[in-house]
Design a protein that fits this description.
two-stranded antiparallel sheet; 4 helices; 52% helix; 10% strand
Length: 145
Protein backbone atom coordinates (compact mmCIF):
# COMPACT_ATOMS: atom_id res chain seq x y z
CA UNK A 1 0.00 0.00 0.00
CA UNK A 2 1.43 3.34 -0.98
CA UNK A 3 -0.18 6.44 0.41
CA UNK A 4 0.52 9.96 -0.79
CA UNK A 5 -0.02 12.82 1.58
CA UNK A 6 -0.19 16.41 0.47
CA UNK A 7 -1.79 19.60 1.59
CA UNK A 8 -3.06 22.64 -0.23
CA UNK A 9 -2.53 25.26 2.47
CA UNK A 10 -1.37 24.02 5.81
CA UNK A 11 -1.09 26.53 8.59
CA UNK A 12 1.40 26.40 11.42
CA UNK A 13 1.30 28.64 14.47
CA UNK A 14 4.09 31.15 14.65
CA UNK A 15 6.38 31.34 17.63
CA UNK A 16 6.22 35.10 18.22
CA UNK A 17 2.49 35.72 17.79
CA UNK A 18 -0.86 33.98 17.70
CA UNK A 19 -1.20 34.46 13.95
CA UNK A 20 -0.72 31.58 11.58
CA UNK A 21 1.87 31.46 8.83
CA UNK A 22 1.41 29.83 5.44
CA UNK A 23 3.76 26.84 5.31
CA UNK A 24 2.42 25.19 2.16
CA UNK A 25 5.62 26.04 0.30
CA UNK A 26 7.68 23.98 2.79
CA UNK A 27 5.44 20.91 2.88
CA UNK A 28 6.10 18.69 -0.12
CA UNK A 29 4.05 15.63 -1.09
CA UNK A 30 5.44 12.63 0.76
CA UNK A 31 5.29 9.11 -0.55
CA UNK A 32 5.80 6.34 1.96
CA UNK A 33 5.13 2.66 2.03
CA UNK A 34 2.96 1.34 4.83
CA UNK A 35 4.22 -1.99 6.14
CA UNK A 36 1.36 -4.10 7.42
CA UNK A 37 3.10 -6.96 9.19
CA UNK A 38 0.78 -9.46 10.80
CA UNK A 39 -2.39 -8.11 9.18
CA UNK A 40 -4.27 -10.23 6.66
CA UNK A 41 -5.05 -8.56 3.36
CA UNK A 42 -8.60 -8.58 2.02
CA UNK A 43 -7.57 -10.62 -1.04
CA UNK A 44 -6.45 -13.43 1.29
CA UNK A 45 -9.95 -13.64 2.78
CA UNK A 46 -11.77 -14.12 -0.54
CA UNK A 47 -14.32 -16.94 0.05
CA UNK A 48 -13.98 -18.31 -3.49
CA UNK A 49 -10.19 -18.54 -3.24
CA UNK A 50 -10.39 -20.05 0.26
CA UNK A 51 -12.88 -22.68 -0.94
CA UNK A 52 -10.62 -23.53 -3.88
CA UNK A 53 -7.61 -23.85 -1.56
CA UNK A 54 -9.62 -26.05 0.83
CA UNK A 55 -10.66 -28.41 -1.98
CA UNK A 56 -7.05 -28.63 -3.19
CA UNK A 57 -5.81 -29.40 0.34
CA UNK A 58 -8.52 -32.00 0.92
CA UNK A 59 -7.86 -33.85 -2.33
CA UNK A 60 -4.09 -33.65 -1.82
CA UNK A 61 -4.39 -35.21 1.62
CA UNK A 62 -6.58 -38.05 0.31
CA UNK A 63 -4.18 -38.78 -2.56
CA UNK A 64 -1.11 -38.67 -0.30
CA UNK A 65 -2.79 -40.95 2.24
CA UNK A 66 -3.56 -43.53 -0.44
CA UNK A 67 -0.02 -43.35 -1.84
CA UNK A 68 1.83 -43.42 1.47
CA UNK A 69 -0.33 -45.96 3.32
CA UNK A 70 -1.51 -48.30 0.55
CA UNK A 71 0.43 -48.03 -2.71
CA UNK A 72 3.96 -47.99 -1.27
CA UNK A 73 3.90 -50.27 1.82
CA UNK A 74 1.57 -53.06 0.72
CA UNK A 75 3.48 -54.18 -2.40
CA UNK A 76 6.68 -54.15 -0.35
CA UNK A 77 5.01 -56.27 2.32
CA UNK A 78 3.43 -58.79 -0.06
CA UNK A 79 6.64 -59.20 -2.09
CA UNK A 80 8.26 -60.86 0.96
CA UNK A 81 11.58 -59.45 -0.11
CA UNK A 82 14.52 -59.81 2.21
CA UNK A 83 16.78 -56.86 1.59
CA UNK A 84 20.51 -57.21 1.49
CA UNK A 85 22.73 -54.62 3.14
CA UNK A 86 23.01 -52.41 0.02
CA UNK A 87 19.24 -52.26 -0.58
CA UNK A 88 18.50 -51.55 3.06
CA UNK A 89 21.15 -48.81 3.02
CA UNK A 90 19.48 -47.25 -0.04
CA UNK A 91 16.06 -47.26 1.67
CA UNK A 92 17.54 -45.70 4.82
CA UNK A 93 19.23 -42.95 2.76
CA UNK A 94 15.95 -42.23 0.96
CA UNK A 95 14.13 -42.05 4.32
CA UNK A 96 16.72 -39.65 5.76
CA UNK A 97 16.56 -37.39 2.69
CA UNK A 98 12.74 -37.48 2.90
CA UNK A 99 12.88 -36.49 6.59
CA UNK A 100 15.21 -33.54 5.93
CA UNK A 101 13.10 -32.26 3.04
CA UNK A 102 9.93 -32.65 5.09
CA UNK A 103 11.43 -30.80 8.05
CA UNK A 104 12.57 -27.99 5.77
CA UNK A 105 9.09 -27.77 4.25
CA UNK A 106 7.14 -27.70 7.49
CA UNK A 107 9.58 -25.88 9.82
CA UNK A 108 12.20 -23.76 8.10
CA UNK A 109 10.26 -22.44 5.09
CA UNK A 110 7.34 -21.04 7.16
CA UNK A 111 9.85 -19.30 9.43
CA UNK A 112 11.47 -17.76 6.35
CA UNK A 113 8.07 -16.63 5.01
CA UNK A 114 7.22 -14.88 8.27
CA UNK A 115 10.66 -13.37 8.89
CA UNK A 116 9.35 -9.76 8.74
CA UNK A 117 6.79 -10.38 11.46
CA UNK A 118 9.27 -12.35 13.58
CA UNK A 119 11.83 -9.54 13.32
CA UNK A 120 9.17 -7.01 14.37
CA UNK A 121 8.20 -9.20 17.34
CA UNK A 122 11.83 -9.71 18.42
CA UNK A 123 12.51 -5.97 18.23
CA UNK A 124 9.45 -5.35 20.40
CA UNK A 125 10.64 -7.93 22.94
CA UNK A 126 14.11 -6.37 23.10
CA UNK A 127 12.62 -2.87 23.52
CA UNK A 128 10.29 -4.17 26.22
CA UNK A 129 13.17 -5.80 28.11
CA UNK A 130 15.09 -2.55 28.46
CA UNK A 131 12.13 -0.17 28.85
CA UNK A 132 8.89 -1.89 29.90
CA UNK A 133 5.91 -0.85 27.81
CA UNK A 134 7.96 0.56 24.95
CA UNK A 135 7.77 -2.56 22.78
CA UNK A 136 4.07 -2.21 21.99
CA UNK A 137 3.04 -2.21 18.32
CA UNK A 138 2.33 1.18 16.88
CA UNK A 139 1.14 1.79 13.36
CA UNK A 140 3.72 3.44 11.10
CA UNK A 141 3.34 7.22 10.96
CA UNK A 142 3.91 9.23 7.81
CA UNK A 143 7.17 11.13 7.65
CA UNK A 144 6.90 14.73 6.43
CA UNK A 145 10.08 16.04 4.86
Amino acid sequence: IVEVEHSDKEKAPSVDSKTEKDVSHTVAPVEHEVIRAGITDEKDLDPVALNKAFKFAAWSSVVLTVILIILIPLPLFFASTVYDVGSLKAWVIVAIIWAFLASFTVVIYPLYESKDSLIMICKGIVKDLFKPGSGKYTAPTPVVA
